[in-house]
Amino acid sequence: MPIIAPSFLASDFLHLADEVAMVNESDAEWLHLDVMDGRFVPNISFGLPVIEAIRTATNKVCDVHLMIEEPGKYAEAFKNAGADNLCVHIEACPHLHRNLQQIKSLGMRAGIAVNPHTPISLLSDIIHEADLVNLMSVNPGFGGQQFIPYTLEKIKQLRRLIDERKPGVLIEIDGGVTLDNAAEIVAAGANVLVAGNTVFKAKDPKAVIRKLRDI
């Protein structure tokens, strides 16, 4: 049974309190919060004040995905804002080991995010320092994109690496997750499903979350 993490990038920002309340009442365990800086990715989303506000309204896991350059400068601030998980991109971190150590020293789960073009083999010498891997199944920066099919092969590769090096690391799939492809994604080895439009644009978001969880 996968962990479901609704992506608030697709939520209605005008009624954010209502959206958080809906997720609180649902079977989702995590709230996925995408932070974009307009530099690492070609878009700007939201930052610390929004996460601070969401933190006051939920007791569920705040899963923060930093699509930003120099994430180490802000790790402590995101911890203070309420992040439980902090995920940084391998492509943005020339000193990734240091970044992961910093995140864990602050009391958060440390995650590595991986872009579609980045091979799984680059994780072989660092996977033992991670608590989760956010495998991007779309190019980061925008919601509503279609799932990249080759991601299924990357999930299988990552599952083998984790089982060999550090069992227990979670595989999170981020981008284009739908009711049509979720079963195949979980069968390939994923533990966490990030879902944006699939949840927040649905007529009955809580029912969609329940169906995803029960896959």
How much beta, percentage-wise? 15-25%
- What class do helices, strands and sheet pairing give? alpha/beta
Separation of the first and last Cα atoms: 6 Å
Characterize the main sheet: 8 strands, parallel
Task: Work out the count of structural domains.
Answer: 1
Protein model, in words:
With 215 residues, this protein is an alpha/beta fold. The chain has a single domain, classed as TIM Barrel, CATH 3.20.20. The chain is built from eight helices and eight strands. It has helices spanning 16-25, 48-55, 75-81, 96-105, 151-165, 182-188, 197-200, 205-213, and strands at 3-6, 30-36, 61-67, 85-89, 109-114, 132-136, 170-174, 192-195. It has an eight-stranded parallel beta sheet with strand order 1-8-7-6-5-4-3-2. Strand 4, helix 4 and strand 5 form a beta-alpha-beta unit. Helix 2 (48-55) runs parallel beside helix 3 (75-81). The longest helix is centred in the C-terminal third of the chain and has 15 residues, at 151-165. The model has no long low-confidence stretch (mean pLDDT 96).
List the helices and strands and how they pair.
Blueprint (H helix, E strand, L loop, with lengths): L2 E4 L9 H10 L4 E7 L11 H8 L5 E7 L7 H7 L3 E5 L6 H10 L3 E6 L17 E5 L14 H15 L4 E5 L7 H7 L3 E4 L1 H4 L4 H9 L2
Parallel strand pairs: 1-8, 2-3, 3-4, 4-5, 5-6, 6-7, 7-8
Helix pairs in contact: 2-3
Short account of what is shown:
With 215 residues, the chain is of the alpha/beta class. It has 8 helices and 8 strands.
Overview features:
eight-stranded parallel beta sheet, 20% strand, alpha/beta, 8 strands, 215 residues
